[in-house]
Write a structure and sequence with these properties.
CATH topology: Four Helix Bundle (Hemerythrin (Met), subunit A)
Order of helices and strands: HHHHHHEEH
Shape: globular
Low-confidence stretches: none
Number of strands: 2
Number of domains: 1
CATH architecture: Up-down Bundle
Length: about 170
Amino acid sequence: MELETKIPKEGNYPEFYKPYISRLDDDDLIGSMVSSHEESIDLFGSYPEEKWEYRYAAGKWNLKEMLAHLCDAERIFSIRALRFARNDQAPLPGFDQDDYIMECPLTHRPVPDLLEELSYIRKTTVKLFENFTPEMLQRIGSASGWPISVIAIGFIIVGHEKHHQNIFRERYF
């Protein structure tokens, strides 16, 4: 089914997601998900193995932690989208990204394994959004105490990924 999507207008998502949404200029959600992910795989996969543990400042994530965060966040955003698309009106809690990373065992995981995991997650996210109806995409639920539409969640996933690509380019290379 061909999706008719547009970047959501302000008011369909919490203001704190505006920096993610503002990074986007393409109304093709699925195409953006695919191209942004390909860019991530090329970008992160080109980073030298000996630098995977590098932190640009004390308390900041290394590449493995950033990739684990991208995996965690996309899973959580996708679950939110699924629940709201299926008309689940239960308010969903937020999550503390730093707590999640502290509980994520990464010392034994090579970056190629994390990139593979991220690819699997993105494939399932794309398939999920491809099969939402236009009505489902417009549904609104509550996450972290804020109203948000399903379509906004899709674009936030892409904008969030682009945000981390930019941080990576600016502070790791």
